[in-house]
## 1
Amino acid sequence: MSTSCPCESGKTYQDCCEPYHQGAPTANAETLMRSRYSAYVLGLEPYLLATWHPDTRPAALKLNEDDATKWLGLSIKRFEKTSQTKAIVEFVACYKAGGHKAERLHEVSQFVLTDRWYYISGEIE
Ligand SMILES: [Zn+2]
C-alpha cells in the first residue's frame, strides 16, 4: 500500500508514520506529534495511549465510539526544543464533528523525553 500519510508530510504512510505506529521510537517531538495525529485519523487508540506520558494519560479515549469526528488536516506551526528533555509543538488541526461545519483546533502541546518522546498535555490557543 502506498497511500499518502494522514499527517500530510507528503510522504507515503509506509515511509512516514507507519513504523512509529508499529513500535519504532520517534526521533523528536514533531515526528511524535505527526504520528499521533495520523493515529487519530486512523483510530489507533493503543498508539495514542502508549505515547501519552503515564502522569497525564487518560484511561481510554473511546475513539471508536466517537466516530463522528473526521480529521481534515494538520499544519505544524512551531516546533521548539525548550530543553534537553522537553519540547513544544504548536499546530492547527481541522476536523468535522457530527457532520457540522469544519472546526479548527489550535493547540500548543508539551512533550517530554524519557526513554522516548511522550506527549504530556496541550493548551488550546
Ligand atoms: Zn506521517
Note: The radius of gyration is 14 Å.
## 2
Amino acid sequence: MGKYDLIVIGGGPAGLTASIYASRAGLKTLVLEQTISGGQMRLTGIIENYPGFPEVTGAELSDAMYRQAQRQGAEIASASARSLRKDGDGFAIEASSGSHQAGAVISASGTYHRNLACRGAEEYVGRGVSFCALCDAGFVRNDTVAAVGGGNSALEEADYLARFASKVYVIHRRDEFRADKALQARALANPKLEFLLSSEVEAIEGSDIVERILVRNKKTGEVTPFAVGGVFMFVGSAPNTDYLPPEVDTAEGGWIKTDARLQTSVPGIFAAGDVRDTDLRQIATATADGARAGVNAARFLEGSVWKGLS
Ligand SMILES: Cc1cc2nc3c(=O)[nH]c(=O)nc-3n(C[C@H](O)[C@H](O)[C@H](O)COP(=O)(O)OP(=O)(O)OC[C@H]3O[C@@H](n4cnc5c(N)ncnc54)[C@H](O)[C@@H]3O)c2cc1C
C-alpha cells in the first residue's frame, strides 16, 4: 500500500506537468502510467506548434517532460488505475501495481481515438495515419489526403485540411453525413473536397509511410486504389475514464466536467488535459491544465483534513 499526497492518473503532457507543479509545491506525488510516458504526444512524429520548440519529435518532448518530472521528485510508476473511490479523508486507488491512498487525485488519462479496423490502420499511426488535422495538416501540404468519417469533426477537419492539401477525399460509410447542415453546405462548396459516400477504407498501404488506400464501394463491391499521402481518421474519440466513480459529473460522451480550478464535482478529484470537457485538445492546453490542476490540488490539500503521510 503506497500513501501519497497526490496521485496523478496518466503520464501524458497533462499528467507530467501536473506532477512537476505538485512536486515543486512539496507534495509527495505518484504518477500512474499504464503504457509509456508521453501519452498521445509520444505518437506524434514531428510537433511544430508547441511554443519554444519550432520542431521537436513527440519522443523527445515526452522524454524531456518525463525527466523533468522525475527531477522535481515525482515518482512515476508503470501501472494502470482500475478504480478510484473516496476513503476516509482521502481516496483509495486500486491499480495494477496494488492499492494506493492519496489526499487528492488528478485524472489526466486522456482519450482514445477510434481507428478503423482495416489492414494497415494501426501500423501507420504516426506515419501517415493521423487523428488530428490541426496537428498534422502541415505535413501534407500540396498532397492528396483522405479524411474518414461523417460527423461534424470529419467535415470541419476536412475543410481545414483543404487549406494545405491539394485534394481531400472525404470517405464515409453511409449515404448521408451526420454533420450539421451548415457544415455540410460549406464542405460541399469546397472544390478541393471529393466525396466517396457508401464507401469504406479496406486497406492502408505504403512503404515507411502511407502511399495509398483501397476503398470499397459498399453498393457495388468495387475496390479502387487511391494514391494519398495521409489518412485522417475522424471516426470518434472517447475519454479514458473507466476507473472513475459515478459521483464525478461528466458531459455527453463521458468527458469530465470541471470548474475553473479544474476540480470535478467531487472535491479533491481534479481533471486535466484531453479527458476534460473542453474545446481544444492539444499539448499546449494539456500542459496548461496540468499546471493549474497541480497547483490547485496543492491548495486543496492545504485546506483539507488529509493527514498527509504521517
Ligand atoms: C497522432 C497524433 C498527433 C498529434 N499531434 C499533435 C501536435 O502536433 N501538437 C499538439 O499540440 N497536439 C497533438 N496531438 C494531440 C496531443 O497529443 C494531445 O492533446 C495531448 O497528448 C493530450 O495530453 P493528455 O496528457 O491530456 O493525454 P494523453 O497524451 O492521451 O495522455 C494520457 C495518458 O494516460 C494514460 N492512461 C490512460 N488511462 C490510464 C489508466 N487507467 N491508468 C494509468 N494511465 C492511464 C495513457 O496511457 C496516456 O499515456 C496529437 C495527437 C495524436 C493522436
Note: The chain has two domains: 2-112+237-302, 115-233.
